[in-house]
Specification:
Structural class: alpha+beta
Bound molecules: 3,4-dihydroxyphenylalanine
CATH superfamily of the largest domain: Bira Bifunctional Protein, Domain 2
Radius of gyration: 38 Å
Strand order of the largest sheet: 1-2-3-7-6-5-4
CATH class of the largest domain: Alpha Beta
Helix content: 25-40%
CATH architecture of the largest domain: 2-Layer Sandwich
Number of strands: 7
Number of domains: 2
Strand content: 15-25%
Distance between the termini: 82 Å
Length: 337
């Protein structure tokens, strides 16, 4: 008779569980509690087996609850279409905002710069973002302890590596690799572009992180005139107009002679006649730099230049503050999208 009671409660509660969306509450039903209360009222001999049956019932009900819970949950998870432009799970498509990303202006312009030099016949190599004292200074003819080393505000890691302060760190590698090409009768013509780092106070014209492009050309007959022609050709292609250029002497240990190269600010970009903008450093590669890379400086000669990318871009678009580039402000970035 008592077992009948268990069957009755079982039927009743299983039915309720099966038709409930949140069945866990049913495990606390008074009918089940009543069965537990019953145990103590039974003759001692019957208590153990009745108690066991009630426990079994509880386990069975609790399994049933879990089954229902799982199926409710799986119904609420919809297959996710990651290509759909709307929110998953909505009854009607709720379109996501369709804002497309775009290239950073510096990336865009750097690609333009690379494109121009590539069309002139230069191979383009990305510069390293961590380098050695050797490539930063010694390979570029900076004597040990020479004050010119201080001019570069270099960062250093605790291990003594250097996040390069100029892309000239790539010159030695380019020369060493190009040596075979020279000996096979060819020329070395490469640019190296990438991020450089300086320990500087940041203001409208100084950043701790910026971009440079370096160029190296070596042949049996390279001349300063070829260098000026190459650079003028580049600037005229980049700004899409004829330009006046001028140079003045400058000291860089890795070139002799060393020059600063300036262009006259074009009227179309708000320039006045006679307003010169210094764009980069350049010169004839110092014989020591060639020799250091195993290149015979009596037979071969070369020119090199290096300059900042931000400066180019700022002039082209009339940007007044270098800090815009790293500020991640969408209002600024979207002007270039
Ligand atoms: N590395 C120099 C700087 O960052 C720029 C430079 C000057 C590069 C003369 C050259 C060069 O290749 O020939 O200030």
């Amino acid at each position: 008779m008592v077992t009948n009671k268990i069957d009755e409660v079982k039927r009743l509660l299983l039915e309720r569980i099966a038709s409930s969306e949140s069945p866990r509450e049913i495990l606390k039903a008074p009918e089940l509690k009543a069965l537990y209360d019953e145990i103590s009222r039974l003759p001692v001999a019957e208590r153990a087996s009745f108690g066991r049956s009630v426990n079994e019932l509880r386990t069975e009900l609790s399994d049933a609850v879990e089954t229902v819970e799982q199926s409710v949950q799986s119904k609420s998870i919809q297959p996710l279409d990651v290509t759909a432009p709307w929110q998953a799970g909505g009854s009607k498509p709720d379109f996501l905002p369709m804002i497309q990303g775009s290239q950073h202006p510096l990336t865009m312009e750097l690609e333009e710069v690379i494109d121009i030099f590539t069309r002139m016949g230069f191979e383009a190599i990305e510069s390293r973002q961590i380098d050695s004292d050797f490539n930063m200074f010694s390979a570029l003819n900076f004597p040990e302890n020479h004050p010119a080393r201080d001019g570069y505000d270099t960062f250093r890691t605790e291990e003594g590596f250097i996040p390069p302060a100029h892309t000239s760190t790539m010159q030695h590698r380019i020369l060493k690799q190009g040596k075979l090409k020279l000996e096979a009768g060819g020329d070395i013509a490469a640019i190296s572009y990438g991020r450089v780092f300086r320990n500087e106070d940041v203001d409208a014209t100084h950043e701790h992180t910026f971009y440079q492009v370096e160029g190296v050309f070596v042949s049996e007959s390279a001349t300063l005139g070829q260098m000026l022609g190459t650079l003028r050709g580049f600037f005229e292609a980049y700004y899409g107009q004829e330009l006046k250029i001028k140079t003045q002497p400058a000291y860089f240990p890795f070139v002799e002679p060393g020059l600063e190269f300036a262009i006259e600010k074009p009227a179309a970009l708000g320039g006045q006649p006679g307003e010169w903008l210094e764009m980069l450093g350049c010169g004839m590669i110092h014989p020591n730099v060639l020799e250091m890379a195993g290149i015979d400086s009596r037979r071969y000669r070369g020119f090199a230049w290096g300059g900042g990318v931000e400066r180019l871009v700022m002039l082209k678009y009339g940007i007044d503050d270098l800090r815009h580039f790293e500020a991640a402000r969408l209002k600024f970035l979207r002007k270039f999208a």
